[in-house]
# Entry
Amino acid sequence: MIRPTSTGLRLRIRLAPGQEPADVAASAERLRHAWGVHAVYVSTVRPGVVDLRLVGYDVLRQVRMPRKIEGAGLLKVPVALREDATPFIRDYRTIPHQLTLGATLSGKSMYLRHLITGLAPQPLALVGIDCKRGVELAPFASRLSAFATDPDEAADLLPALVEEMENRYDLIKDRQGIAPSTPDEEVTSDIWGLPPHHRPVPIVLFVDEVAELFLVATKKDEQRRDEMVTQLIRLAQLGRAAGIYLEICGQRFGAELGKGATMLRAQLTGRVCHRVNDEASAKMALGDIAPEAVMAACAIAPERPGLAVAGDTSGGWSRIRTPYLSLGDAAEACRNTAHMAPDLPALKPFRP
Ligand SMILES: Nc1ncnc2c1ncn2[C@@H]1O[C@H](COP(=O)(O)OP(=O)(O)OP(=O)(O)O)[C@@H](O)[C@H]1O
Ligand SMILES: [Mg+2]
# Structure
């Protein structure tokens, strides 16, 4: 079967007895030259059937998202384009927490911008922690339910989120008729099992420049830091069932940030790595995923901000790039959807 697409062609072929998808994949590079196309990608549809996706030109040079996107919906945001011209969808229901790394000017905030504008029209609460004094997230303040612009404010906001999470666990326990003394970890169900009118709204927490939360100048700050890190770890561990999702951005995120950093990182399933300055930074994001992914991230050129390698801890990875979106347009999208910001009593004191 041959089907033209806006970027090339799709061929669906049945394998002959004795062939396997790896045989076709091994020939992809030769087919690319024989057909004179930019790239050929092979994917398995079902046993015995593979898809060949011919891409005619470099779709990541000038990213244009397809007009009709399958699979987008509540908590599923198409944020970027893969190099095989399929949309990359950030799906919070399957990958609750994500870490986005990259050097300065690599396009992390652009990635966040797309996520926020994609989530803004949906019935959920957006919470921001932006330790760059709010310069990255402040334009979206009208849609945020809570906002912290320095570590002091974050130190107040995080416990409120943890408390909200615990209350949601109590709510789930109530519905299940389990004794309130059961530890949170043993509740297997989540908010999605509650009837819609009882279900608390999902919360997505954006943290831009996470290292600012970890760095301390004085001994006195150290205790506050340890508390914040513990709270973030708890949110990452238990948040999903309570409908709390983390989206964490930073330039580096390694053991040198201190106690708890690697433990928090291990909780963040989704990984996106933009251009980095050294291999060590790429390893922080992708090292536990695949060595080739680390190499791909190290090869990203500075002339292409927004280009990134996206992986998840199941071992797969792909090159992606966000389309350009101006800050003005993103801010306007947030202003137009400000009425969607739900009423959350626990977060009221932090409303920007
Ligand atoms: N996909 C893209 N296409 C075109 N330009 C982009 C793209 N992504 C980012 N840029 C541009 O690159 C520049 C840096 O992007 P961004 O602010 O997102 O970087 P950053 O990683 O957040 O940097 P910092 O760590 O300094 O905050 C911006 O001027 C932005 O307009
Ligand atoms: Mg930024």
Remarks:
- The mean pLDDT is 91.
- The chain has nine helices and 14 strands.
- The first strand starts at residue 2 and ends at 5.
- Residues 102, 104-110, 251, 305-306, 321-322, 324 surround adenosine-5'-triphosphate (ligand 1) (CB under 6 Å).
